[in-house]
Amino acid sequence: MNKDNTELLQITKVLNELKINEIGKNVNFCNRKRIIKPFELVMSLITALGDKSVDTVTDLHRYFVKLTETDVQYKPFHNQLSKPEFVELIKELIGVAVNDWQQQVLGTEVELSAFKGIVLQDGSSFAVHDSLKDIFKGRFTKISPAAIEVHVSWDVLKGYPEQVSISPDSQAEYDFLPDADALAGRLLLADRGYFKLSYLDEIDQAGGAYVVRAKTTVNPMVVAGFNKAGKPLKRFQKIKQKAVKKHIRRSGIVDMDVEGKTNYRLIASWPEGKDEPTYWATNLDREQFSAEKVIKLYQLRWQIELLFKEWKSYCNLQKFNTRKATMMEGLVWSSLLSLLVKRRIGLSVQQLTGVELSTFMVAKNTQGWFYPLMELITQNILSKLKKTWKSTIHFLSKYAKRAPPDRDKKTGRLQYGLKPIIS
Length: 423
Description:
By secondary structure, this protein is of the alpha+beta class. It has 14 helices and twelve strands.
């Protein structure tokens, strides 16, 4: 079997009729033969959510009818999406996909080589139908009574999120942080919604590292302060964090040691034009990571914002006008599955051609290849599938390239000490 077909086999090993139908049976999604089979339903959702913008469940139904060439009315299709087992079906398949498809896609340069992984943590929320407010309570009830938040832990060295949770938007973000023990030898980057002192202490005790935006509601004692060159600053000895603001010059950086319930290193920067300083808590060694390096390293967290943009813009992570909580949750998981499928396709093309691809461009540029590829996988027409796969490889290697390496090192992810791994 040639290399092209080996990569195609990796994709169809997960998007496999027998496997998906068996999962459907195991989670009690279907206990007897039905017109709407789990495999065909899953493939139609991956295709619809990954192909172009869809706004309604009716749009999803149209994709199902077209892709499967099955005359199924809207009501039975809607009923299948409403079942609680629909959520379990998609989540189970996501577990299979992550297990079979996850691999390291980035390595680290010297400064970051001590870390086994770099974990980015963030969440993204969106409003859903108001009738779901008792299940998915919104944070801003006057604006959005009902809203969902998706929480993601993602090791940026790997191609896929490693932990995804769905919750009401009103639930505390730090409830969804990865286990501190799982961060041993790794670096966590997270926004201030995930700032929790006891958790930072647990990471430190487990042998992990962190850079987290610090909240201004805490007020530890500053016991030492240094400028960005490492020179001690006497005015930052024995003052409270809330008093730091008046001692920081605009556009300045101060590197401090603080003591309280948890001891940590606190870095403050007052960007020009901003009304307040920004604070970061970290346990990274000052000798190895200067304050400026820590701030720059934290900017790598922007990569998870790009993940959410890709997910929302090109895999339809969005509100569907449904009053069914299980359907809404199931469609969120389905949109994630669509993202994983497109990422695996892009990774396969990258491995085959040696051309580094942009996952964002793969997700965006689906014209002419994504629907035909999903259709032929669904219909299992092997000869046509191999031909379409070859044209997909050619198209993506030409039109979904990443920015040139020199530019990526200046303004992209490579500026943080990362390097692509392409076999």
